[in-house]
Write a structure and sequence with these properties.
Low-confidence stretches: none
Shape: globular
Structural class: alpha+beta
Largest sheet: 3 strands, antiparallel
Strand order of the largest sheet: 4-3-5
Strand content: 15-25%
Helix content: 10-25%
Order of helices and strands: EEHHEHEE
Number of domains: 1
Radius of gyration: 14 Å
Number of helices: 3
Length: about 100
């Protein structure tokens, strides 16, 4: 499931636009916004994709840590979880304190 960062409406993974506010979910889903913030942060060197304990095979396959220029886009294409993709981006910091 995707959550619109504009109006907080939940949408299925295969939707590209929010049904309530029509925001482009490829840019304005919570995951897309989180990825953009992480890519812009110089302290974040790698990005981890965390998956749920009951993740489908497609999600388990992409679980792991990636360089910023190789991070897969979420939701995972081909996710077969009955409730949709629950994968999330997690930052891997180079420095914890300034």
């Amino acid at each position: 499931m995707q959550i619109c960062s504009v109006c907080r409406t939940t949408s299925p993974d295969d939707r590209f636009f929010c049904p309530k506010c029509n925001a482009d979910l490829r840019e304005f889903s919570e995951n897309a916004q989180a990825l953009q913030r992480m890519l812009a942060n110089d302290r974040i060197k790698l990005i981890n994709i965390a998956v749920a304990d009951d993740a489908c095979p497609a999600c388990r396959e992409i679980a792991g840590t990636y360089p910023k220029d190789q991070v897969p886009i979420l939701p995972v294409p081909g996710c077969s979880h009955e409730n949709g993709c629950f994968c999330r981006y997690q930052p891997v910091l180079d420095v914890l304190y300034p």
